[in-house]
Amino acid sequence: MSLFITFEGPEGAGKSTQARLLYERLQAMDYPVILTREPGGTRISEMIRRIVMDLRHTEMAPTTETLLFSAARAQLVSELIRPYLNTGGIVLCDRYADSTFAHQGYGLGRDLDELQAITTVATGGLMPDLTFYLDLPVDDGLYRKQVAKGRVEQSSPGSTFTTPPEWNRLDARDLAYHQRVAAGFAELMRRDPDRWRQLTAEQPVSALAEQIAQEVEPMLKRVTRLGADA
């Protein structure tokens, strides 16, 4: 069998950091595991990422944005995610299709049924086995990212994130947009509670990493460790 785990949450919640820490933990335990991200993860998908995230592209229409994200996802699923899952491995992905429903659906007001149809085509219906939502007030998350990029001075010592993030076109949208996105994620979790694990990102990185590891541990029996059949 295989295992597909995704990470979602507001900007600045530490998704990339936690995905990397889980990857390193599983790799040290000799599990077959890869780490990827959305949009991106393949040569073509990373090229699309540069277009869709570029701060200069303020004129991009919502439909264009939706289709670009979906095109990047289609390439990632076809080239990397599905083939690796077919080998029985573990795939960790920093964002996935839920982000389209939250950002382009609830955030931009795109029709959810239309998004479902597009997403089904892009993914072939592939859904995660487990999705972590790292919960953080949206204004706190945006502030974290601004501090990390040097856009504002940090007003208090310490930090709960370790991977300096980018500041992109979606980050730069107004607070109301990000609040709609957060509300969208809340609705997605309400509709599919068995798949989601909501954890607070307002705690030390190491403590959050341990919570994530504990949630994943029971599912690892689905995956054979490297060399276990030797």
What does this structure look like?
The chain is an alpha/beta fold. The chain has one domain (3-222): 3-Layer(aba) Sandwich (Rossmann fold). The protein is built from 8 helices and 5 strands; from the N terminus they run βαβααβααβααβα. It has helices at residues 15-28, 43-53, 62-86, 97-107, 112-123, 138-148, 175-191, 205-216; strands at 3-8, 33-37, 90-94, 130-135, 196-200. Strands 2-3-1-4-5 form a 5-stranded parallel beta sheet, with helices on both faces. The relative contact order is 0.22.
Q: What integer is the average pLDDT?
A: 90
Number of DSSP strand runs: 5
Please identify the top-level CATH class.
Answer: Alpha Beta
Gyration radius, in Å: 17 Å
Overall SS class: alpha/beta
**Proportion of β residues?**
5-15%
* CATH topology label: Rossmann fold
Which assembly state applies to the chains in this document?
single chain
Major β-sheet strand ordering: 2-3-1-4-5
* Main beta sheet strand tally, sense and closure: 5 strands, parallel
Number of helices: 8
CATH structural architecture: 3-Layer(aba) Sandwich
Q: Mind telling me the CATH superfamily name?
A: P-loop containing nucleotide triphosphate hydrolases
Shape: globular
Short descriptors:
12% strand; 8 helices; 49% helix; 230 residues; globular; 5 strands; alpha/beta; Rossmann fold; five-stranded parallel β-sheet
Concise account of the structure shown:
The protein is α/β, with parallel strands linked by helices and 230 residues long. Helix content is 49%, strand content 12%.
Fold topology:
Layout: E1 3-8, H1 15-28, E2 33-37, H2 43-53, H3 62-86, E3 90-94, H4 97-107, H5 112-123, E4 130-135, H6 138-148, H7 175-191, E5 196-200, H8 205-216
Parallel strand pairs: 1-3, 1-4, 2-3, 4-5
Helix pairs in contact: 1-8, 2-3, 3-5, 4-5, 4-7
